[in-house]
Structure formats: C-alpha cells, structure tokens
Amino acid sequence: MKKELIVGVNSFHKKELKKHAVRPLHTTFLGMPIRKWLYQLGAKQFAPDKIKKDIHAIRNLYAAKLSHTVEEKEREKLRTKRDKLIHAKEMVYAQGNWFMRKGEKPVEYDPVYVKENEKIFLNYFYSIGYLDAEVSSQTVTQKGKVVVTYYIKQNKLYRITSIEVQTPHKEIQTLLSQRIQTSFLQKGHSYQYQNLVKEQERIITLLSNEGYFACNEKHVSFEAKVFHEDATISLTILIEGEKGDIPHLKKTKVATVVVDFENQYDRENKTAMRTVWFQNVECRMRSHTYALPALMRKIAIRPGDWYSKRKIIETYERLHDLALFESITILPKLEADQLVVHIQVRPYEKVKCQLELGGECINLNVKRLRPTIKIAPTIRPLWGGLGMACVEASMGLGERQENTQESTQAYPFYRYMFYQLRYKFMTSRFVCYLPEHIIRLLEDFSPKTTLDIGYSFFRRPVCNRHKIEATFAYGWCSRSKHINFQMVPCGIIADFKNKKSEHTEVNRGDPWQTPPAFLTTMEAVCKIEPLPSVYVPLLSNYKKWMLSLGIEGGGLYEHIFPIIKNFLSNKFQYCQYVKFDVTYRHAWQLTQDTTFVCQTKWGAIMACGATAKEAKEVYAEKQYTVGGHGSVRAWDTQMIGPGRYEVNKKNHPQKGDLLLLGNIELRQKWIGYLEGALFLDIGNTWKLASHALPIMKFNWNKFYKELAVGGGVGLRLNFYDTFVLCGDIAIPFCNPSGNKNANGPPFNFNLSIDYPF
Prior knowledge:
Layout: E1 3-7, H1 11-20, H2 34-45, H3 48-67, H4 72-95, H5 98-102, H6 111-127, E2 134-142, E3 145-153, E4 159-166, H7 170-178, H8 193-209, E5 220-227, E6 232-239, E7 254-260, H9 264-269, E8 274-278, E9 281-285, H10 292-296, H11 309-321, E10 325-335, E11 338-347, E12 351-361, E13 369-382, E14 387-397, E15 417-427, H12 436-442, E16 448-458, E17 463-478, E18 483-499, E19 517-528, E20 545-554, H13 556-560, H14 563-566, E21 573-574, E22 577-589, E23 594-607, H15 612-616, E24 658-669, E25 674-686, E26 708-719, E27 723-734, E28 748-753
Parallel strand pairs: 1-3, 4-6, 7-9, 7-11, 19-21
Antiparallel strand pairs: 2-3, 5-6, 8-9, 10-11, 12-13, 13-14, 14-15, 15-16, 16-17, 17-18, 18-19, 19-20, 20-22, 22-23, 23-24, 24-25, 25-26, 26-27, 27-28
Helix pairs in contact: 3-4
C-alpha cells in the first residue's frame, strides 16, 4: 500500500481512526519511515535456508562432543549450551533478525483489510454519537501500488434528553441521587459509548464502597430509546437484584479480618505460627515482632464494618508505604455466608545489603573522572516493626580544582578523596506525643517520620573539609487531593575545614577556604502532583504535572537560643537567611511515542540577621547555581553567572541569590530501548546583596539580556521504565557575558541517570 487517505472529517478524528485501524501504515519520524527501512535492510540479509543449515550443523557438532564425553556434569553443560544456540537460531528463523524485529513490515494491500477498516471506522462514529454515519471506500492502483481513500459522512450528532434510574432498592436509588453530580451521563450532552462504560464502573465502585460486596457488571445495565427524527436518546439505568444467575444485591458486613505474616521461609521449614487476637483482628505471626497497636492503625477495614472496596485499597496503600513487606495480598471472600478479609504479607529479609558503583565524568575527560563506590545495608523491621534503618558508607575520588594553588603542583590522586557515612531511620508514624484519636485521623495521610544523620570528609592537599548534617522531618500526603507535604522542624549543618598551610591565599568565594559554618534550618515543602500508583513502576506513571512550593529558614534557633553559640568556637560563621522556591513541570503526550515536557523554576535566598555581618553572609551551600544536568546543560555546573559576570582564572565557581530557569524538551521513542530528545535551556542566577558587583546584581530593566541560552540533542536508553541513562550534547547559544568563547569548549556533554526533569 502506498497511501491511506481519510476524507470528510477533521484532523482529530483522522488521528483516532488511524489508531483504531486493523493494520495501520508504518510510523514515521520527521517524515521518514525509519522502522520500515530497518525491516527492509534486515529482509535483504535474512536467509532462512542458511539458518536451517546452521541448526543442523549445531546438532551434529554437539552430538559428536557428547559421544566423546563421559562425565555427566560436562554432558549437561554441553546440552545446555547446545539448546541455547538452537533456541537463538529458531527465534531468528521465526521472528527474523534484529533489524526485522525492531522494524516494521511494509503493509500489503488486502481487500478484506479495507472492509474491516470500514466497519471499525463506522463503529467509532457510532460510539461517539454519530448514529447515522456513513463510511465507504475507493481503491486506486498506481504503478503496482495501491491508494485507498475512505469517504466518511458524520451526519447528525445524537444527544441525551432524559436519564432514569430503575431499581427495586430504595437505598440504592437514594444513594445515586445524592451522587448525581459525579455522573458521567448528563442531560443535553452528546451520546458517548465510553461514558456508559465509565458510568457502569462508577456505580459499581460506589456500591462496592457502601457495603455491596457482590455487586458486579451483571447488576448494572442500560436501555436506550433512539429517536431519529430529532436525533435524541432516552437512557434508562437498570440496577437489578435477583434475576437468573445474578445474586441478590444486599449489604454485607465484615465478619473476620485475618492478617498472616507467614513468609516463604516459614512455609518451607513448617514453622509453628502463633495466633494473636488484637482489636478483634486475627494475627498469625512467628513471634511478637510487630507493635500491634501501631500496625492495626494501618488496617482501615475492621470486623463489624460494612464492606468497602475503598478501605481495602486504602489498607493496601498504607501497608505498601511501610516499605517493610516484599508482597501484599488482600483477598475478601465469603466463607459460610460470612465475609472474611485475608491479608497476606511477606516481610523482607531483616538485613539486605546493596552495593552501588557510579560516578561522574565531565565532557568525557578522563582527568575529570570521579568514580564512587557505596555499600548500603538496610535493616528491617525496627522500633515496633514499623521502622527501617539504612546505613550508607561511600568513598570516591574528588575533582581537582582548576586555577588554584593545588593545580600548580602534581599531587597523587589519593590526595583527592572523599568519604561519607550516613544513617537514615524512617518510620510510618509521627514520632511525637499526640492523642489517640488524632493519630488515627493522621493515618489517612500516610504519615512518615525520618531521621537522617550524615558525616562527610573531603581530603585535599591544602585543606581537609568536614561536614555534619542532621535533619528530622515529617511527611504526609493526600492521594485524593494530590498533595504531598514535607516539614523539617529542625536541621543542623556543621561545616569546617582544617588548613594544612597558613600561607594559603584566602578567597571567600571558594567553599574550601570560607570560615567554618554552623547553622540550624527549618523547611516546609508542598508538592501538588498526581501521586504515583503503588501498582506500577514509578517511571511508568511519570509526573504529568507538578507544582512545588518551598520555604526554608536558617539561623533561627541560634538567634532564639544564644546559648548554642557559647558551646561553639568564635571562629564559626552564623548565617541567617530565608529561602523561597517555586517549581512547575508539565508533560504533554503529543502522540503515542512523542512527549513534550517543560519546566520552570524560580528561587530566591535573602540574608538577614541582627548584626551587619550576619545580614551579609549567606551559606554558600544554600545558594543557587546553573549549569549541568537538569539546568542549562550547555555549561558545566557553577560555571555561568551570576548576572553578566564571567569566571576568570583567579576565581572559583560562582553562585547566586536569585534563580530563574526554564527548560523545554521534545522526547521521541525510536527503536527498542532507544529514545531521542531535542531541548532548549534558558536561565541564570543573580546576586541580591548590596555589596555585590554591579554586573552580578539583578536589574528588572535588563535581566532578560543576561539569560544564558543553550540547546542541543540527546540520546536515552530507557529500560522498561525503571532505569533511564541520558547522554546530552548541548551548545551555548547566548552567553550573558557576551564572550562566545568563554567558559570552556564549544559544546558540553552530560551523562546522567534519569530524565533531567
């Protein structure tokens, strides 16, 4: 087939009809049928007779080897290897070579295929309300290739004039009338078959949440009267009880809830399980490992409650958020006319160790390679069975700072090492005293408490750096309102250096030479986004949109409690600041394989304090930078800005107090795991302090002239929506300083894991 044309409808309906076609034409990228060309390339190299000969030769070769082998282990290895080789050849024979499997076979003309498409197109228009639609086709042959044209007449659009509910159950009639505003069927709207399906699902879900355990698709049906004169439809929703093999609709109470903690090890070793009753819930466990009062709060459905599908799902989500169970199965079923809810959970291993290898490489420069290794054992369960702890120990090679005194001397690589030790404890409840009724109410928001303590040691020839960080955080979310909230009531940062040479030139812009710093922080972040489903991998439901609002303050506790400063050295720097962040991200699915994503960020940090020194100083680690992965990718991290400032040989990477950033990216799936991207980045930072240089300061009249602009292309390897490896090549289009050749090579290469945004 050469072409397939659709005449008589708009572009939206054309796209939908092509999706529903029995055998659509080959896909294109930028107007080129790449996948069709791949198949044709593979078909030229495909030789089925040769594959048969290869299979026969493999059988003969291994038959000879097996005849000369006596040991059974060696014979088994030979058989396994033979079967693998034969299986690979048989797969190629049946499915074609790699090019044929990844490509698309050209579509051949078939009159049966055309007639089937006519029926499908007609059904499509019936389903969206055009009950008088007409579809016909015409086939024209041109030089051995076929052009098929489908002629479509939509005619009148039928609308719903009346909706009536018929049921012998008055309680169901009242329930549906109270929820009529959430119905997918409304008077005056056009007839849509899909709305009937959605309405059936809505009614079944509604009744299932109100105690009707046996309610299914057989109980909800529709009758329609069609009036062709005025193109209207009268709908009747039938909710019936006992009829034939359909069971009578009635509300059911939960008689028993059984929670089983038996795992695979217990089954294999036939471990004796103890039965413990708590709040009328039967718990089967090996020992009292779990704090039953806290665990029972995670179970939303209890004996004596009306059956509710919503509470079943809510219980699953609460148990899943604990991150303590490898698998969770909830099965409600009738046993001797009583509803029993079985909850089977399989706990993780108590100790699980994970080893990670990684690192960074800037522009594929081996001299700037920074490999890291991390070992992270996780211990479960702790603190009444609802907590887990993770201890991370990592070490790696740090990057040498260019244009410094260290770069003038040749030091061995082991003089640039960093070591990190981190302890993280997480539990799915609030670690604070609250009344019992408030604790039960908070369970609806999946509460979490996290304690994170980390120590880092950075070794340098001139100066060693020590850093201690500790945070105590609360988090909760509302899945119905798409809100995820995190609050850090207390955080501590202690950052100090040990100079090895007193004659080192001090540069306050260099984080390695700034005075020791100590500060306490408070933070609150509110994210409004579609929360990921617990049933599919995270990247499969990658955020369609996200709005994040954050506020952070530093130095408050030192100001309220001056006694803290008395315990520390006078050499420490105390910083007080307020920081605001706003991030918005949105993704549009243009086609099945094409996604358009945009992101914008705004942030500001302002120093404040009782003294003039505190009002000027801002902790460098909290300031903003641009460049690198997730930012303006045409420049390396911290190598652009602030403002029109240009990094020279005597200065170090720069940071700013105000951030403006925007990114747009077009992502296209290609072949197999391979994806492509086109992107454009724009942004910069500025200084807000009064003592900053004029070229660093923000000016409303000319800030748009100081934005760094870069763009480029990228390749991504997306493995089953669980792991994404990105490689982006970005070219600077506009340098704020006006120097086109400043700050490095004419392009920048970024290699990273996960999408930039």
